[in-house]
Each structure stands twice: as C-alpha cells, then as structure tokens.
Amino acid sequence: MTVSIIGTGQSPYTRHPAPGTDTAQVIARAVRNALADAGLEPADVDGFAVSSFTLGPDHAIDLAWRMGLRLTWLMQDTNGGASAGGMLQHAVRAIEAGDARVIVLAAGDLMDAAAFSRLVARYNRATEDHLAPLPMNGPNALFAMLTTRQMEALGLSREDYGRIAVTQRQWAADNPAAVYRKALTLEEYLDAPTVATPLGRYDCVPPVTGGDAVVLVADRGSGTPRARVLSVRASYNADQQAGDGLATGLRGCARAGWEDAGIGPAEVGLACVYDDYPAMVVAQLADLGVQPPDEDPAGFIERRIATRSLPVNTSGGQLSAGQAGAAAGMHGLVEAARQLMGRAGARQISARHAVVSGYGMVLYRYGACATMSVLEAAA
C-alpha cells in the first residue's frame, strides 16, 4: 500500500503574536487549513499526531478533543526538528496496518520572547545543568563552534554560507507566508551584526509563532494531486554526542532511504533540508548524497544552490520564513508537498521527486535526531 499527502496547511508565521494567542489555537488553525486543502472535514479524520514545545499542560489527546476529533490512532512526538519525519514514519505504518484511514500530522508553537527564553534555558537536563549557567544564550554559540569546525574541515568561507542565506531569501520573496521577504545582498549578510563568531544575524533562524500540518491517506490512484511517500528513514543518537557534529545521523540512514524510494539523490529536483544554520544545510546535503562526495562544497554552493539550478528550501526555509518551534521540521515537509502538488504559487518549480530532512534535539553539543523522507509527485 502506498501512502500520500493530499493536503497541507499553515497557521501564519509571525514574530509578534496577537495578545491572547495560544498554542492550541495556532495548531488547530493549521489543521483546519490542511483539511480544507484536502477537501475533508474533521469528521473524516481518524488519526492524529502532534509535536509542540508549548502545548502543555495539554497533550495530544486534549488537543484532539478540543478540535472535535474521534480517533483510532494517536501520537505525540517530542523530537523537535526531527518530529515531522518521526510522525510521518509512524503514520505511514499506521495506514498500511489499517489502524487509521486519514491521518493529520501537525506541529506548532507559540514562540514569543518569553517562551523562547524558557525553552532554551530548560531544553533538557544537560542544558539545564551544564549549558544554561554558561554566559551564552541558546544554541547559537554551540553552532558557532560547529560552523568554525566545518569551515576549517571543508575550506568554506563566510561568503559560502552567505550565498545559502541570500538564495533562500530570494525564494522567500515569492512566499507570502515568510516573515522576511525583503531582498538580502551578500554584502548585507557579511556586514550584519555578529551573534557568535563566525555567525552573524542572518545565519541564525528567527523564532516565530506558527504551525504546519499535512493530511495523509492511502493512495487514491489517479485524479488527485498528491505527494506520494516513497520512503521515510530515521537515525537517533548516531554517535552518542562523541563526534564533531559535522556528520549528521543522515549519513547512516541515507542509503537505506534511497533504496526504499527506488531512486538516487541525483534524481531529486527539490531538497527541503533543516536549516537552523547554513552549516547544517551543507552537512545534510552532503550526508544525503545530494552534494556528490567528490564535489567541492564551495563550488557546489556556488554552482547549484546560488544559481537555483538545484532548488533548496524554496519557501525561504527557516532562515527567512521563520522557525516555529517544533513546527520547524514540518515546515520543509509542507513545502515539498506543496511543490509536488503544484500548489506553491509564484515560487512553483517543476520537480517529480523531493527529499525532506529533519534534524533536532541538541542533547548537549549538536542534534541527536535525523530523519529523511523521499516524496514523489503524482496525479
């Protein structure tokens, strides 16, 4: 049995949520929009999964009840930027097993300044006990060190990372949902205030309030534009935080993901990779094999990403659209599905296959979770 995405939805991203906004409202709006896109009603849904950092004290069952859902399958994922891939993996299996027919996957957060401060201070026990007491705010310093290591290992410069940020801003110009759409030049990128050397302002994702959702069903056959799920793979604690962070868990699961999909990375026409920092775009494209192992990373960025001959993060990615908490991983899945279903508006590209990656849960030094999904356009 093949499983497909037939609807996507978002709750508008914003840096400044209106007074009275709460997480449940944000996620519910994304769910409603996804169901409307799929031509379905809440009564059609019998499976639901959600990921959120700020939904508490409620849980998945509370949110499902508030949205009026009667379910035979329910899941709550806590793995942040990798949660979309994790939920997708379980949902595909659930539909294949007959546990549910129509599953909605959703993620979102109310992420104002206070919520973000609480999150980065108490992200996990390692953060609370060892990182929070240090004179640094959040993950920027950790990824500044990782970026420095990557620059030294691969011979990359700030200009190389800047080309990624500038190109994603070009894509964002045609995305009405992106929080930052104004053109960004390489000079502006390089001259931006330093956050944590070598990271500047435009290397770091802007936290936003927002939500994302997709609707999954067993493949309906011809006549319905959809994004068919060819494979989903995941890796957790690939190196037990004992490495240098330059390789993600994707390196270990990519081969199986491509074999499951029946295609190779050279056949992909769109890559939506988790982009909390430009260095992670570089790492994941290499680990997925989208950047060929024998190709110079700087040259690949200049020839393929900056020219947009390989579309990467066509929504603008998190660097321009914003990082909506746990919805950050769902953001790329929504964008890939929209592109493959021909619903991306002015930024629409022509692609048959897309790869989506998730990355998240910085246990102590870098992300411990990684997921990859390969999708195919069908109609």
Automatic annotation (TrEMBL):
Top-level taxon: Bacteria
Thiolase C-terminal domain location: 240-363
Any one GO MF annotation of this record: acyltransferase activity, transferring groups other than amino-acyl groups
Residues forming coiled coils: none
SUPFAM superfamilies tied to this protein: Thiolase-like (SSF53901)
Entry-linked InterPro entries: Thiolase, Thiolase-like, Thiolase_C_2
Gene3D superfamilies: 3.40.47.10
Protein name: Thiolase family protein
Organism: Arthrobacter mobilis
